[in-house]
Write a structure and sequence with these properties.
Elements (H helix, E strand, L loop, with lengths): L1 H16 E4 L2 E4 L10 E2 L5 E2 L8 E7 L8 H11 L4 E7 L11 H12 L4 E2 L12 H7 L1 H4 L12 E4 L5 E5 L8 H4 L3
Parallel strand pairs: 5-6, 6-7
Antiparallel strand pairs: 1-2, 3-4, 5-8, 8-9
Length: 185
Amino acid sequence: MKSIAIIATIFSLLFSTVLITNNSIFMKPKASIYDISIKSLSGEKIDLAKFKGKKILFVNTASECGFTKQYADLQKLHEAYKDKLVVIGVPCNQFGGQEPGNAMQIQSFCQVNYGVTFLMTEKVDVKGDKQHPLYKWLTQKEMNGVKSSSVKWNFQKYLIDENGNFIDYYYSITGPMSSKITKQL
């Protein structure tokens, strides 16, 4: 009888940490993306929970990168899908030192050159020892429950669904208006 109880306990633990959906197995995320704290470029706390009900596209950005022109398409995506998508730019200086500016310089650059009105966060590390908790969640299966990745370069994109679940990530070469992204919207 003890062995049956032990087996039942094991199955109970397994099913409390694993979700089975459409014949695919996903780990249950350890933390909610909505609980992660990050600030805007202006230093105000961003409440990610206020975006429940909309998809979120996080993009690590840089002002002096070959992919910087993607700001224009990120703005188009923001405008075209604003009722169901929140675009959030996350400045990072870890790839070739291509985001050297301070918050005011980054904000001005984005507005003047690309008319950016979508939300921009504080400048953070997206990898390494000082990786921001947001990017720990986005890049670690143990945190997001779906898959692990590493941020390869500026303008890598991470898509989250309306309930805060990880959908997928897209390398820099995938443009913001790509059907790979827009078909998810």
